[in-house]
Design brief:
The protein is of the alpha+beta class. It has a domain at 175-234: Nucleotide Exchange Factor Grpe, Chain A, domain 2. The chain has helices at 2-17, 31-38, 66-138, 150-172, 180-183, and strands at 175-178, 192-198, 208-213, 215-218, 221-224, 226-231. The strands form 2 sheets. A 3-stranded antiparallel beta sheet has the order 1-4-5. It has a 3-stranded mixed beta sheet with strand order 2-6-3.
């Protein structure tokens, strides 16, 4: 009993006399490291590694700084492509507008030509009736138009009025009658047809002095050339 009590007292005394080492006590180097530090030739073989070091780049991998340049070049290429498309579309638009206007003008000319052709056929058919009406008026001698022949005078005046109204109506549609001898025009081979030549001392050479058949003009074009006699003194 006494021995057990003494043993416990000795253990408590040993525990109270033990002091733990400080938390920042220097750590003694191991024997192997001490030997390495003692040998200078082995210091150069020691390698140090950093956890923050960049990973090695793979072959063909672009640097981060080249990405903005690549994006700028790609955007520039897309912009140039869009500009070319805009120019192409604008050219096609202008060509379409020009083709449409040409089509309008061509259609307008064709419609007008069809109208003129239809009127030309009608005018060629009616000028014969106008010629016959004019012959009927010119065949009546002026001495017959006297009060003694009242019926003939009335008929002549009616025919003359009918001819006047008919010519006014035809003129509204572009058909005009041409009598070069009345206006004493110079001979024009484009609108006149010389049938004969005769001397006229009181007139200049090349002047139309007689109209054998009156001509007709349709919208400024010759429908039928006037047959005339031309002065030739020499």
């Amino acid at each position: 009993m006494i021995q057990r009590h003494l043993l416990r007292a000795s253990q408590r005394a040993a525990r109270s006399s033990f002091t733990p080492p400080p938390s920042f006590a220097p750590i003694r180097p191991r024997t192997g490291v001490t030997r390495a530090l003692r040998q200078p030739q082995q210091i150069a073989s020691i390698r140090w590694y950093s956890e923050s070091a960049e990973a090695p780049k793979k072959d063909g991998e672009a640097a981060p700084e080249s990405k903005p340049a690549d994006e700028t070049a790609q955007l520039k290429e897309q912009l140039e492509k869009k500009d070319r498309e805009i120019i192409d579309l604008k050219d096609k638009y202008l060509r379409s507008v020009a083709d449409f206007r040409n089509l309008q003008e061509r259609t307008k000319r064709e419609v007008q030509a069809a109208k003129d052709f239809a009127l030309q056929r009608f005018a060629k058919d009616i000028i014969e009736s106008v010629d016959n009406l004019n012959r009927a008026l010119t065949t009546v001698p002026s001495e017959k138009l006297s009060p003694d022949n009242a019926d003939l005078v009335t008929l002549h005046d009616g025919l003359k009025m009918t001819e006047h109204i008919l010519m006014q109506t035809l003129k509204k549609h572009g058909l005009e009658r041409v009598d070069p001898s009345v206006e004493q025009l110079k001979f024009d081979p484009n609108i006149h047809e010389a049938v004969f030549q005769a001397p006229q001392p009181d007139k200049e050479d090349g002047t139309v002095f007689h109209t054998q058949q009156k001509g007709f003009m349709l919208n400024g074009r010759v429908l039928r050339a006037a047959k005339v006699g031309v002065v030739k003194n020499s």
